Amino acid sequence: MQRMSDQPTRWTRATVYPDMWTDPDDDPRNNEDSPEGELATLQDFLANYRITLRMKCEGLDAEQLARRSVPPSTMSLLGLLRHLAETERDWRNWISDGDPLPKLYGKRDADFDGAVAEQAVVDAAYRDLEREQAATDAALAAHPDLSERVGKDGISVRELLVHRIEEYARHCGHADLLRECIDGRVGQ
After folding, report:
1. What average pLDDT does the segment 50-70 reach?
2. Measured between alpha carbons, how far is 77 from 80 in angstroms, rounded to an integer?
3. Is the pLDDT at 40 greater than 50, yes or no?
4. pTM for the full model?
5. pLDDT for the residue numbered 1
6. Taking Cα atoms as reference points, which of 53, 6, 8 lies closest to residue 28?
């Protein structure tokens, strides 16, 4: 556990705005063209939060990614990557009328509990997240009508997309604080 005197100094790579993660010209989320239509807008917001999460994790080693926030919390950046992979898989259960997909990591909270400081676990988490995001994106692409109701519970595609954005946005806030605790890096 870090003592107050062990806190990292706040810093940023940005030179234009010192409270930003990166300079606007270097930000991969900046898009000159505003998306057209509701579906494109929702997809753009989701893509930007996904990029933000990866940015918050970049440049860290396995130990840093697995570092827990504050006891008794099990939250870590690696745990967030694993949790979001698990969540993406679960969203496909909402779309489907079939049997639910099995959990990726096992019992409840295994996504966070199993986030240990091993490079193989880190590599697997990134692969799992990418695979599960692509699979959920593909499943939703079959339902371009945002008002369509899908799955056993009849959830609207719009609600599912907004819920995905909310989940990533909330966890990007966690990631921002976790990253600052690890090495002091701050920003948008």
Report:
1. 94
2. 5
3. yes
4. 0.87
5. 44
6. 53
Q: Which fold has domain 36-183?
A: Four Helix Bundle (Hemerythrin (Met), subunit A) (1.20.120)
- Output the six-digit token pair for 36: 């057209």
Look at residue 4 and tell me whether its pLDDT is greater than 70.
no
In order, the DSSP letters of the chain are ---GGGPPPPB-S-SSSTTSSS-GGG-TT--SSPPPSHHHHHHHHHHHHHHHHHHHHTT--HHHHH--SSTT----HHHHHHHHHHHHHHHHHHH-SSPPPPPSS-STTHHHHT--S-HHHHHHHHHHHHHHHHHHHHHHHT---TT-EETTTTEEHHHHHHHHHHHHHHHHHHHHHHHHHHH-B---
Residue 73 CB contacts under 8 Å (≥ 6 apart), including other chains: none
Domain extents in the chain:
36-183
Cα 81 to chain center, whole Å?
6
Whether the CB-CB separation of 97 and 127 falls below 8 Å is answered with no
* pLDDT at residue 70, rounded to an integer: 81
